[in-house]
Amino acid sequence: MAAITIEPQHKCAGRGAESGPRCLLCGLGPVELFLDLGRTALANQFTLPGQPAAPEYPLRAGQCAECGHVQLLDRVPPEAMFRDYLYVSSASSTLTAHLGRLASAIVSRARLNCEDGLVVDIGSNDGTLLAAFGRLGARRRRGVDPAANLAALARSKGVETDVAFFTRATAERLAASLGPARVITATNSFPHIPDLDGYLAGIQALLAADGMFVVEAHYLADLVEQVAFDTIYHEHVSYWALGPMRRLLDRFGLEVFDVERLPLHHGQLRAWIGWRGRRAVSPAVEELAQQERQLGLDRRDTFVRFARRASAIGESMRATLGQMKRSGVRVAGYGAPAKASTLLAWCGLGPELVEFIADRSPLKQGRLTPGTGIPIVDPGEIERRRPDVLILFAWNFAEEVMEQLEPYRKAGGRFLIPVPDVRIV
Ligand SMILES: [Zn+2]
Prior knowledge:
The protein is an alpha/beta fold. It has 14 helices and 18 strands. Strand 3 and strand 4 form a beta hairpin. The two termini are about 25 Å apart. Zinc ion (ZN) binds near residues 23, 25 and 67.
């Protein structure tokens, strides 16, 4: 059999890294490159067969030498990414349950007077979180999301949604028509914001004097510890740690008054934010800041090591799948989250090595993975086509997925978990 040669376009940054644009957090910089993932298609741009290939953009991660904020060096216009969106919160039962618990935690902590208190969810997706607030009695709710297709889903659940990016103008319009918000939430959309100043000016305009702004974002400490390089894609312009977040908020008169680390989605940072001096600040805030310094999240060498481990995963995936192909082992995938797009591109995997990827989302079925062209099918195809190995691209939900696929495993099927080390179970 002919040798399989795969030449992904990537490199790790060593010393003398290039410097990118000004830092999107502090406006200073320079932003120093540590991982160059090459040119890739947008991670959620699943194309239809026969459509032209999705356009590719450079994907490079760096750290600001001034404030330590980890971010992308290249910007893609948000309109290209968020106007039509295929990631639906309610598709994951784990996420739906998590958002239900978040709503409960906020209602009890904010002592939200459910009859009156306005709750605004930024990046409200299909309305899953606001629907949970509704079940707890919150009547005044408003979603903000730029994706018209998702807003329509939210409205079908009774969640009124503005189709817009959250900017100062959006916030001022909401404040004028609805009054100040007792609660503003941003779950998993905070990493998406290219104009942080405009966004925080919007929070200033909308947040009530006794209001709280609750952010959940993939936590940089978990990203580094898990080598979750595949969560780096164009939508995620920021990779949040507490240190840079506090610096940003301070400029807007806001502060983090409590923090939690959560296991969801590779590990999340939940930051409880209010007007500076308004609430007692939990000791947990300073403890986490101290841990971040111990982990070296403010230091470049931490990220150079991270990039080396990402390279090792790419090499191991290519070697493992090449060997399987030569041995006649048939490989498919399960789950086509956005991070699968980064992983596939980084490892140089296409349909010649991964026959298909099964995904529960009907919005993705019948489409192809962005740039790498692997067909996405209904999970029923696993039973029909019986691959020997399934790569779990949603490795953060590995336990949930393996439980769902127990019949496949009982019939002799194996799973490949790619991150943080390639392993077969
Ligand atoms: Zn900076």
